[in-house]
Specification:
With 339 residues, this protein is α/β, with parallel strands linked by helices. It has 2 domains: 2-114, Rossmann fold (3-Layer(aba) Sandwich), CATH 3.40.50.720; 123-273 and 310-338, Dihydrodipicolinate Reductase, domain 2 (2-Layer Sandwich), CATH 3.30.360. It has 9 helices and 15 strands. The chain has helices spanning 12-21, 35-45, 54-60, 75-85, 99-110, 126-136, 170-186, 284-303, 311-330; strands spanning 2-6, 26-31, 49-51, 65-68, 88-92, 116-119, 143-151, 189-197, 208-215, 220-226, 240-245, 248-253, 257-262, 265-270, 334-335. The strands form 2 sheets. A 9-stranded mixed sheet has the order 14-13-12-11-7-10-9-8-15. The protein starts with a strand and ends with a strand. The protein binds nicotinamide-adenine-dinucleotide and (3R,4R)-3,4-dihydroxy-4-(hydroxymethyl)oxolan-2-one. (3R,4R)-3,4-dihydroxy-4-(hydroxymethyl)oxolan-2-one (89Y) binds at residues 156, 160, 173-174, 177, 237. This is Putative oxidoreductase protein.
């Protein structure tokens, strides 16, 4: 399959490296309205078809899918252009600016019969995946409690300055991944309540969020996120887990250590992600998951399957983000049915 990528910024580099490793797909065209970034990406990855205007790239065609790696304001227009061009779509998180846009984007691609996947990669991190598979395989019986936790003091603003500027920060940018991991582990959510704080005075949005989720299947989970946590070791960008089940417990601790206890026995596994040749610590965890989700997309298209984080699936993660902000703003718990 041939693909085109739009947005050659901070994160797209990982996606371009990931595509170079994926079996069954190659990137044949790239687009960025910033000519310098476009030229740098084209030179680094040997891609000659370069466009400053996405409409021109779609008009020229010659690719089966588009990978949208821009920030959220451009997602809806670009997904709609891709739908009009009749190609499959991958779109970065956060998927949309609001629920109406997200629904319109899903409908636009659905009408073409093509596939839409949101690049929601954290559930593809190999350590998180090991926990998901153990849980789904019944390793601790039926789960009834979970904590999904991301706490760090890492400076994400130097690489992504726009994160300091938005009215919303951690839930929309990072919490979205952690909420998605909670969904992957425990299923869909009926109700959520959230509190938020801003600790860093140099940013506009919230950098701490604590959320309590009631999952339809009976699990209660706590999803807590912070970019204001000063502690050692610094665990960026690890998601830590504590899960209780009817037969045992599972923990994913700092340093990618997975512990499963059951019937008085303990199994401890090192589930550290590999450092791919193009990756660098501490991002290697995220970088591997980029390659994995992109391979998943290609494999799903080849097999006629729906990707795990299809647009329709990711709408339910995005709804959690909207519901968390509503809960924090109004000081009440929010039923997902309200959205
Ligand atoms: P960035 O600002 O560094 O890069 C975005 C690029 O898109 C810029 O070069 C910009 O010129 C270009 N662009 C924007 N609108 C365009 C348009 N209409 N046509 C052509 N080019 C356009 O942003 P980034 O940090 O690379 O983030 C991009 C997206 O990736 C964001 O949505 C962010 O949340 C997401 N992200 C995801 C992960 C992850 O693990 N999944 C990690 C970091 C960032
Ligand atoms: O943008 C964010 C993401 O998706 O993963 C980590 C990040 O780069 C900073 O929070």
């Amino acid at each position: 399959m041939k693909g085109a990528l739009i947005g050659c910024g901070f994160f797209a580099r990982n996606q371009l490296h990931g595509w170079a490793d994926v079996t069954g797909a190659e990137i044949v065209a790239i687009c960025d309205r910033d000519e310098t970034r476009l030229a740098e990406a084209g030179e680094a990855f040997g891609i000659d078809r370069r466009y400053a205007d996405a409409a021109e790239m779609f008009a020229a065609g010659g690719f089966d899918f588009v990978d949208i790696a821009t920030t959220v304001p451009s997602h809806r227009p670009l997904v709609e252009m891709a739908a009009a061009a009749g190609v499959h779509v991958i779109c970065q998180k956060p998927f949309a600016l609001n629920m109406d846009d997200a629904r319109a984007m899903i409908a636009a691609v659905e009408a073409t019969g093509k596939t839409l996947m949101v690049h929601e990669n954290f559930r593809w991190q190999s350590a998180v995946r090991a926990a998901i598979e153990a849980l789904r395989g019944g390793a601790i019986g039926t789960p009834f409690f979970g904590r999904v936790s991301f706490r760090s003091g890492y400076d994400v603003f130097s690489g992504q300055p726009y994160l300091a500027e938005g009215e919303r920060f951690i839930i929309e940018d990072l919490g979205i991944h952690i909420l998605d991991i909670a969904r992957a582990l425990f299923g869909d959510v009926d109700r959520i309540s959230a509190t938020t704080r801003r600790i860093n005075p140099n940013i506009r949005g919230e950098d701490v969020a604590t959320m309590l989720l009631s999952h339809g299947g009976g699990v209660t989970s706590v999803v807590d996120c912070s970019y204001a946590t000063r502690r050692m070791p610094e665990t960026f960008p690890e998601t830590l887990l504590e899960i209780d089940g009817t037969q045992g417990s599972l923990r994913l601790d700092a340093g990618y250590r997975l512990t499963i206890q059951r019937d008085g026995q303990e199994e401890v596994r090192d589930v550290s992600p590999p450092v791919l040749p193009w990756a660098e610590r501490p991002w290697h965890n995220i970088q591997e998951s980029v390659a994995l989700i992109q391979q998943h997309f290609v494999d799903c298209l080849a097999a006629g399957r729906t990707p795990e984080t299809s647009g329709a699936d990711n709408l339910r993660t995005f709804a959690l983000v909207e519901a968390a902000y509503l809960s924090a703003a109004e000081g009440r718990s929010v039923a997902l049915s309200e959205l």
